[in-house]
Specification:
homodimer, Hypothetical protein af1432, two-stranded antiparallel sheet, metal-binding (chains A, B), Putative hydrolases of HD superfamily (chains A, B), metal ion binding (chains A, B), 5'-deoxynucleotidase activity (chains A, B), YfbR/HDDC2 (chains A, B)
C-alpha cells in the first residue's frame, strides 16, 4: 500500500514494505534510547506486521481527520480477514502482535509506535516539508500527532521536537 | 538498490527494502520449518541488515558469474565504509550481524540465507520465470544456486525443488 510520505532520495512516495523495513532497522539502532528496557527482536516483529492490515484497509493519512475516524473499524475488519487466511497458530501470532502494537500497553509496542511516527518525520524533514504541507495542517498539529514518541523515548521526542521547531522556522510547516 | 527479481503484482523490479521486509516476515512465519531451533528475533536482525552493503556494492545478479567473482571483495569494502559511519557499538553490532550472515556458521544465518534464496524463487514462480529466463541459465543452474535452502530446512528445500521442477515442465526454466 502506498503511503503518504515522500522518499528522501526519490521522486515517488514510499510503500509499506519500505516503511516497515526502515522501522525494523531503526528499532535495532535506536533501541538504546528507549526509556524502558525493550526486547529488540519482539519490537521488530511488531513493526514488521504493523501495516499488513493496509492490504485491505488502505493507508490512512495521519492528517486526514475524517479518514481517521473510520480507521479503527476498517482496520479491525481487515485484520479479521487477513490474519484469518493463515493456519491457526501463525494467524493467531500475527493477530496478537498487531493487537499489541495498536493497544500500546507494552514498552515494545510504545517504542514500535514511536518509530512509526518518527520515521515519516525524518522523511518530511529530508523533503523540506512533505506531508507537513498538507492544507490546513500547522506545526502544532504535527507536534500533537507526534507527541506519542514521548511515551517511549524522552531523548528521541526532544530530537523530533527540535526538527519540527526548525521546520516551522524555515516555513516547511505553517505556524497557523 | 534495485534487485533483479520482478514483483508478483507490479510492473517493476523489487528493491532491497521491500526484499528485506519480505524476508523478515518469512522468518516469522516459516521459522517452524527450520531443521535446527533458531532465535527468530536474531534471524530477523540478520535479514534486515543483510543487503545494506548494496548501498555501495550494488546488486549482484545471482546468475551473473563474472560479477559473482568480484562480489566478496566489493561487499567487504562496502561493509568497511558503511558500518564505519555509525558510532562504535552500533557499527560493530551491524558489522557482526553482516559477517554472521555471510559466514553461515550459525543456524540463524543458515535460515536467513535460505529465506534470501527462497523469496526470489517465489517471485520468479509468480512471474512465470522471471530471472530463470536469464540467457544461458538452465533449471539445473537454478537448482545449484538454490540448494543452500537445504542447509537450513529440508521441507522448504523440498517445496522449492517442486516449484523448480514444475517451472521446468512448464518451460519457465530451460532444461538445457
Amino acid at each position: 500500500m502506498l503511503r503518504q510520505s515522500p522518499l528522501a532520495a526519490a521522486d515517488r512516495r514510499e510503500n509499506d514494505a519500505e516503511h516497515s523495513w526502515h522501522l525494523a532497522l531503526m528499532v535495532m539502532t535506536l533501541a538504546e534510547y528507549a526509556d524502558e528496557p525493550i526486547d529488540v527482536g519482539h519490537t521488530m516483529k511488531l513493526v514488521v506486521v504493523h501495516d499488513l492490515v493496509e492490504i485491505y484497509a488502505g493507508d490512512t493519512p495521519l492528517y486526514d481527520t475524517a479518514a481517521g475516524e473510520s480507521q479503527p473499524e476498517r482496520e479491525e475488519a481487515a485484520a479479521d480477514r487477513l490474519f484469518g487466511i493463515l493456519p491457526g497458530s501463525s494467524g493467531r501470532e500475527l493477530r496478537a502482535l498487531w493487537d499489541e502494537f495498536e493497544a500500546r500497553r507494552t514498552p515494545e509496542a510504545r517504542f514500535a509506535k514511536a518509530m512509526d511516527r518518527l520515521q515519516p518525520l525524518l522523511l518530511n524533514w529530508m523533503a523540506k516539508g512533505g506531508t507537513w504541507r498538507t492544507p490546513g495542517v500547522t506545526a502544532d498539529d504535527v507536534r500533537a500527532r507526534k507527541a506519542v514518541i514521548g511515551e517511549a523515548s524522552a531523548p528521541l521526542w526532544d530530537a523530533a521536537k527540535h526538527l519540527i521547531d526548525e521546520g516551522e522556522r524555515r516555513g516547511w510547516a505553517r505556524s497557523r
